[in-house]
Amino acid sequence: MSTAAPQKGPGPGVGLPGPQQQQLREISPVYLCRIGQETVQDIVTRTMEIFQITRATQLPNGVTQSQAAYQDRFGKLQEHLRQLTLLFRKLRLLYERCVEMTPDLQESPAELVPYVCEEPEAVRMESCSPAVIQERREVLEKVRQKNQEMKVLMDQMRNLLWDVNAMLTMRK
């Protein structure tokens, strides 16, 4: 990826000519997130390459490998680890820049994605009208009912599959 991560320093565009300074001002959080996504993909790719190199490496079971092959693999691993370090730094800078640019969207991940089998915590309701509160309760109740219906259907499908599998094994 040839896109450079935003650097901490005196500020965007200091010492840059007009068009480049304007371009840095127009960087949006969405663009930074796209760069961050590409960076995460690079991290995953590098990590997979490291695992492939280590999987191909033989343990020293008394067999002498050529020193050149060992040095080559070791050099590749060192380069991949160095690149991973740089990619994680870039990702950290992108994250910090996005946090700076979007202070109004700062929610903890627990608020965004509930855990399985966890009852939703009491959600902050800021001076909502009684109609909105009642509608929220109704929607939550409908969701609970639909979840229960889905559970019943899944149980029925599971039982049906068990019966079909049992019949198939009896035929053989």
Automatic annotation (TrEMBL):
GO biological process per UniProt: positive regulation of DNA-templated transcription
Keyword Nucleus included in the entry's annotation: yes
Origin superkingdom: Eukaryota
Key words of the record: Activator, Nucleus, Transcription, Transcription regulation
Membrane-traversing stretches: none
Stated role: Component of the Mediator complex, a coactivator involved in the regulated transcription of nearly all RNA polymerase II-dependent genes. Mediator functions as a bridge to convey information from gene-specific regulatory proteins to the basal RNA polymerase II transcription machinery. Mediator is recruited to promoters by direct interactions with regulatory proteins and serves as a scaffold for the assembly of a functional preinitiation complex with RNA polymerase II and the general transcription factors.
Name by which UniProt lists this protein: Mediator of RNA polymerase II transcription subunit 30
Source species of the chain: Phoxinus phoxinus (Eurasian minnow)
